[in-house]
Specification:
1143 residues, Immunoglobulin-like, 14% helix, mainly beta, 9-stranded antiparallel sheet, globular
């Protein structure tokens, strides 16, 4: 139906409709019954007829305003047959098609790095703590998943179908998810589901993210990605109109508007509908109207939405809604911004031939390996005769030549060892530019040429941080008989090098006779016995030992390597064996008194379990329960069981050398009826005929790793109010981005712009003189090439100069990203395949300032590069310590043979997770600082990943970069989670937390959320970085500091201590008790439903003789005291600070 412009002009400004809600509420779509779709990647019109349809994806950018559509043609639909949730997407692609590198199966981050679809499902969006399911898939069937159920992270392996194909410049994609996967057996009338549909675009123009691209979504207003407040809502109804928004313009690249919407009545009754439309250009005349429509049974109406006059360059806000005639039920709602103009959104076509043979390659300069992979899927393999590869320098001189192996399953792969290109670059090829040409005999014109670089840099192979010395406060490693002692721990080794016992801070962690290796060979069970331990190295920093062992006919060797922080690498070597090894288990009996908390980490963050050790008997946990990103088996790289101080951990890069079975978990936790608890590693879960030598690498570390610094309670992170600073011995002056220290990218530069150290030197000068040189800001900013970001650069540098002016000595910490790097710089162009975790970086030249934020594996050459720049940061006087972002374990699909990645029996590549490389980065940095005469006080951002061998060589932790929103902190983190992951005591590290709270929305709700955060952080002694907004936190913290908190005269009791002298009757709570003679401060935080609480004290232990006075520390009101009992009321999740005077 066409509307007359004159009629609409009369309605302009009169129609209030619910336009505020139309523009601010999340999108909404009603769906009805459809036929079960065929998932074949071909989107048919008859399939779409009963689905709700949307046009365009909104760009997810930091702005809090209404989102803007990406100016690329895209449409998506959603429907259901009652059992399945059906999703289809059709979107245009660039001249190079889509990026689809990750193979079918669990691909994790690799799937995300490709052009991909991303979905978030919330089956119960109205719940206070809803369940959340998250999946990303590429076109090949590679996927990554995560889930959160019952307020806990959970593994999720969805049984879904999807298919995609690219044809005629369009990517068509279909997926069907069983509703049962979300706990929904059948949709009921009016049932709601939260659904976020996203399209991740790669290889875009510079304006739209460059090679990295941009994330787009069915969204309206920026909100927390994994929260339910802003998620689009899909509601099921049997009788609803089918609404499809068809178009915005007549032609994709044209400038003529054409807003059309289809309304279809699938029922046998006439539908009375109410539509609302808002058209608001930034400068031209707006249109707003409502209309009542009667839609006959089976009728389809095409609504032509008017646009009035639109001038060039205008940004248009469009909103459209369809409701029931009485306005009570919303069937369709969406709003967005857009423009008529169509800028170039895709990158220019890639340079190079378009061959039917797909060549992927990776050059690894650390080992001079060149990995070549040719895919012959598009050619007749029988024609292939001989494949040769030749490497030449820039002048065309031949460097090396090889013949590749035969094609198998349409693939030809080889890792080719080249001569030292570093030497050749230095001697005869100063450009460092090389070419590899692959020729396939038997295929016409089948010659593929690609370029790569091997430039040489002065920092390569440096010795910074490689000295053989201790890092404070660690003490020399000692050996006495079979006992190896490190700071706070004694490790008694068996005759095969396993731990018979470890005594941590005076308590034994293991039961029975410690760890044992149990083998079943040819049906008979044997316990491995060592033949005596021989120490091969003893020094202050390192101890090595080795032993031979035997379990029946199975024999081998073991090698122990102790570091001074108490970490022991254990290499188990197995010799060939006659017959069959049916199983091989490492059994670790634990003392449950020192193992009631549990933490398991895989390759990622925000989904790792932390909290109470699972209860029950039998197998109470196994590794299939752990969520993961890329790991191809049930193996979990890091497991920890312990207490708030002590603990035991076992870890490794992956399951290389193990024998994995699909139906047996790699690791399991077993509790017997008598309470005995065993951590079992199923090294051989599947029977093995050992015809060749095998090696299994494990790591063990007990806690506490090191003591807390003596004055840790008089420290803070950043965000410290001025009134708190006089009471603190340390607080951080944080340079929180790469921009602020002169980088071009927000987080990924290590060096300042153009490697120009003058900014850091000036920062050092300002710190010394407390004066900012006149005109320096203008002078520095004049050197930026990308002027479009000059405003941001200027603001960041200005902030940095003023921070330096006021920073106390020893307080300045520079942000760096342990997994980020600029990709357009020469260093990365040479070392990209060693440094970046994803397969096959290729030869596309990134745009200026391009970077990768989550991709780096800090291999040896990266450490050489990074530590060089860390030293420059400190030596210039600009900073004192280093902050590392993104230290989580992350899968590395390296094919150089230099990492732990390996090819599994079924041909899949099992990645390593970079644990030991990351550890070495932190160690080298700390040793470099010690070599400069400094004591390190570095920080790691370890959200949800409290991994002992990584945190050993750091001194400060930062947790809680998750759960953005206004959910109370008691709903975000259990008490057990905080004690297992966040408090830092197990590692001797200062415990920092971001504790994110949104700044948008209901102020009362925001303030309440901040108050719940104050109660949780204060009672767990977690240092919040929220700053002045967390006024309840800081007001109470300052009173604690005034009282003497952190000083020798005040005894601090934590509620989890066995000797805690406070008894609190009431609901679940957390608390902290500060005692100074006859005075005390008690903070009690509700963790359940609030209500009445009664507090009594162990007065004998405290030396008290009754309570003289109890006062609410915030209000000053007296509290009721009866016979030594203090009574008070708390609302749900609130806290109280009680000032006590004893008799």
């Amino acid at each position: 139906m066409k509307y007359l412009l004159t009629a609409l002009m009369l309605l302009t400004g009169v129609c209030c409709m619910a336009k505020d809600e139309l523009l601010t509420a999340p999108p909404r779509a009603a769906i009805t019954q459809m036929k079960t779709p065929v998932i074949d990647g071909i989107v048919q019109e008859d399939e779409l007829k009963y689905t709700t349809g949307m046009y365009g994806f909104c760009m997810l950018r930091p702005s809090l305003e209404m989102m803007t559509l990406l100016p690329a043609d895209a449409r998506f639909n959603i429907g259901t047959d009652g059992k399945l949730l059906y999703l289809s997407v059709q979107c245009e692609v660039g001249p190079d098609g889509i990026l689809e590198r990750a193979r079918a199966g669990r691909g994790g981050q690799r799937a995300f790095m490709d052009d991909s679809m991303e979905f978030v499902f919330v089956p119960n969006p109205r719940e206070k703590i809803p369940d959340i399911y998250h999946i990303i898939t590429n076109n090949k069937g590679s996927y990554m998943t995560a889930a959160r159920k019952n307020n806990a992270n959970a593994a999720w392996e969805p049984a879904f179908k999807f298919k995609g194909r690219v044809k005629d410049g369009v990517w068509s994609y279909e997926a069907a998810f069983p509703l049962s996967a979300f706990g929904i057996e059948e949709l009921k009338e009016g049932q709601e589901i939260g659904v976020r549909i996203c399209r991740n675009w790669r290889r875009m123009s510079k304006e739209y993210g460059g090679d990295w691209g941009i994330q787009t979504a069915w969204s309206q207003i920026r909100g927390a990605f994994f929260e339910s407040d802003s998620i689009p809502i899909v509601v099921y109804r049997k009788s609803v109109p089918v609404v499809r928004f068809l178009s915005l313009k007549k032609e994709i690249r044209g400038n003529e508007p054409d807003l059309r919407v289809s309304l279809f009545n699938p029922t046998a009754e006439t539908m009375k509908l109410k539509t609302a439309y808002l058209h608001r250009p930034s400068t031209s005349q707006s249109i707003a109207n409502e209309e009542q429509i009667a839609l006959k049974p089976g009728e389809t109406k095409i609504m032509q939405l008017p646009t009035a006059q639109i001038t060039d360059g205008e940004v248009i806000t469009t909103g459209f809604q369809v409701a029931s005639g009485d306005g009570e039920k919303i069937y369709y709602r969406r709003a967005f911004k857009w423009s008529l103009e169509r800028p170039e959104v895709f990158a220019a076509p890639d340079v190079g031939e378009k061959d039917k043979i797909a060549l992927k390659y990776a050059y690894y300069p650390e080992s001079d390996g060149l990995f070549l992979q040719l895919d012959f899927s598009a050619v007749e393999v029988g024609k292939v005769k001989k494949i040769t590869a030749v490497v030449t320098d820039k002048a065309g001189r031949k460097i090396a030549e090889t013949t590749l192996p035969a094609v198998r399953k349409k693939l030809c792969e080889t890792l080719w060892k080249l001569p030292s290109l570093k030497k050749i670059t230095q001697q005869t090829n100063p450009s460092g530019e090389y070419t590899v040409a692959v020729t396939v005999d038997g295929i016409e014109n089948a010659k593929i040429v690609r370029n790569f670089e091997r430039k040489v840099f002065p920092w390569e192979g440096n010795q910074l941080g490689k000295s053989d010395r201790l890092i404070p406060p660690f003490t020399p490693v000692k050996v006495n008989g079979n006992t190896v002692s490190t700071l706070l721990r004694d490790h008694l080794l068996s005759d095969m090098g396993l731990w018979r016992q470890v005594t941590a801070d005076g308590a034994d962690l293991l039961k029975e006779d410690g760890m044992r290796l149990e083998a079943v060979v040819n049906g008979k069970t044997y316990s491995a016995q060592g033949k005596g331990l021989r120490f091969t190295k003893r020094s202050d920093t390192n101890v090595k030992a080795e032993a031979e062992w035997q379990a029946g006919p199975l024999k081998g060797k073991a090698f122990c390597d102790f570091d001074f922080d108490g970490m022991m690498k254990y290499d188990l070597m197995l010799e060939p064996c006659r017959g069959k090894v049916d199983s091989l288990k490492l059994i670790i009996p634990l003392d449950e008194a020192n193992a009631y908390l549990f933490h398991a980490c895989t390759d990622g963050l925000r989904f790792n379990y932390g909290g109470a050790t699972p209860k029950g008997e039998g197998r109470v946990w196994d590794s299939t329960k752990a969520a993961r990103m890329d790991l191809q088996s049930s193996y979990v790289p890091y497991l920890w069981l312990g207490t708030e101080k002590r603990g035991f951990s076992v870890f490794g890069e992956n399951d290389r050398g193990w024998s994995i079975a699909e139906n047996i978990p790699a690791q399991e936790l077993i509790r017997k009826k008598d309470g005995a608890m065993y951590l079992v590693l199923n090294l051989f879960a599947k029977p093995v005929e050992l015809k060749n030598r095998r090696r299994i690498e494990l790591g063990f570390q007990a806690m506490p790793v090191k003591p807390m610094r003596k004055d840790w309670r008089k420290c803070a992170i950043w965000g410290v109010p001025e009134k708190a600073k006089p009471y603190l011995n340390y607080y951080m002056s944080f340079i929180g981005s790469a921009l602020c220290r002169g980088g071009v990218s927000s987080s990924d530069d290590l060096a300042p712009r153009d490697n120009d150290l003058s900014l850091w030197e000036t920062y050092g000068q300002v710190r010394r003189t407390k004066q900012i040189p006149a005109g320096y800001l203008d002078k520095w900013c004049a050197g930026y090439k990308n002027k479009e970001r000059l405003k941001s650069y200027r603001a960041e540098i200005n902030y940095g100069l003023y921070l330096m002016k006021g920073a106390p000595a020893g307080s300045v910490t520079f942000y760096t990203n342990a997994r980020g790097i600029r990709t357009d710089i020469p260093e990365t162009r040479t070392f990209q395949d060693n440094w970046l975790r994803e397969e096959f970086q290729g030869n596309r030249i990134p745009g200026y300032g391009s970077s990768r934020s989550y991709s780096v594996e800090p291999t040896e050459s990266f450490r050489d590069y990074a530590v060089t720049w860390y030293k420059n940061m400190i030596a210039t006087g600009a900073c004192d310590n280093i902050y590392w972002d993104d230290i989580f374990l992350a899968s590395n699909f390296d094919r150089s043979g230099q990492t732990a990645a390996y090819v599994m029996e079924d041909g899949r590549l099992q990645p390593g997770v970079g644990l030991f490389n990351m550890r070495e980065l932190f160690r080298r940095t700390a040793l470099m600082q010690v070599g400069m005469g400094r004591e390190p006080f570095n920080m790691v951002h370890m959200t949800n990943t409290a991994i002992a061998p990584l945190l050993s060589f750091a001194q400060q932790n930062l947790d809680w970069e998750d759960n953005l929103g206004t959910n109370p902190f008691q709903q975000r983190y259990t008490k057990e989670y905080i004690r297992a992951v966040s408090i830092g005591r197990q590692f001797g590290n200062l415990p920092g937390a971001l504790g994110l709270v949104t700044n948008q929305g209901d102020r009362n709700l925001i303030e309440w959320c901040l108050r719940t955060g104050a109660g949780v952080t204060l009672t767990h002694e977690v240092f919040w970085t929220k700053g002045g907004a967390a006024k309840d936190y800081w007001n109470n913290m300052i009173e604690m500091l005034k009282f003497g908190y952190g000083g020798d005269e005040v005894h601090v009791w934590n509620y989890w201590e066995k000797e805690y002298p406070v008894r609190i009757a009431g609901g679940s709570n957390s608390s902290i008790f500060l005692v100074k003679g006859k005075e005390a401060i008690l903070i009690v935080c509700d963790y359940e439903n609030g209500g009445e609480f009664k507090v009594t004290f162990d007065e004998k232990k405290l030396g008290w003789n009754g309570i003289a006075e109890a006062v609410d520390g915030e209000s000053g009101k007296a509290l009721k005291v009866t016979d030594g009992t203090i009574a008070f009321q708390l609302r749900k999740y609130d806290f109280i600070t009680i000032r006590i005077k004893a008799k």
